Amino acid sequence: MSHPAAGALMDILYLPTIQYFAHWAASSSVILEQCAPYTKGTWRNRCAVATAGGSLVLSVPLLSGKYLQPLREVKIAYHEPWQRTHWRSIHDAYRKSPFFDFYAEPLEAWYRQQPEYLVEWNTGLLRILLKALRLPVAFETTESYAPDAPENYRDLRDAFAFKPRLQRPDPLYRDVRYVQVFEDRLGFLPNLSILDLLFCTGPEAASILRRSVITDN
Fold first, then answer.
1. How large is the C-alpha radius of gyration of the chain?
2. In a domain? residue 145
3. How distant, in Å, are the alpha carbons of 55, 73, 150, 164 from that of 67?
């Protein structure tokens, strides 16, 4: 079985999944793709959190004309107070989790910002999450689109599909169970947004991520 290369070429997603961050944690460096064309049905503007009623998908609204634009040109729509709605949903889902109060403040502050572009929004959240997870992984962004990843980088673009039928096998990833807020009524919900792992396990989150990917170490 092949193992993760030194680096990873990854999409810029909204509050990405545990699987996404597990591969990030297993990489020595990350390149974020911002020049590929925007397509429908991805996690670029969606995330999934656990609520009392089950998994809830939150979507960032985008301005029209986005399809097939380079991702870095896709603009966010602010005609509705979606940020307030998203944060209220996150708050209601995780306010009783063990570590919500430890990590909520910078995230809540970001939800009061209004960057013009989706890339800015997602990247700002990534920086907050990397700091909270204490993942010392440097990243850079692409300046042009290339069909292949650089040498010694795994191409993980489009590896984390929103629609189940588009998901591709990932033999290096395995779900590591942890105690979730609503597990007693819903059972364990795998591979939610990283927020679920962070708010439920706190300082143990990074260790769980590293155990979620098969490596040579």
1. 17
2. yes
3. 27, 10, 26, 21
User: Residue 19 belongs to what domain range?
Assistant: 7-211
Task: Report the alpha-carbon distance of residue 106 to residue 30 in Å, rounded.
Answer: 23
Q: 3-state DSSP call for residue 122?
A: helix
- The DSSP symbol for 95 reads T
* Closest of 181, 167, 146 to residue 70, by C-alpha: 146
Neighbouring CB atoms inside 10 A of 138's CB total 11
What is the tens place of the pLDDT at every residue in 33-67? 999 999 888 899 999 999 999 999 999 999 987 77
DSSP H or E run through 102? helix 100-110
**pTM for the whole thing?**
0.93
191-214 pLDDT, tens per residue?
Answer: 999 999 999 999 999 999 999 998
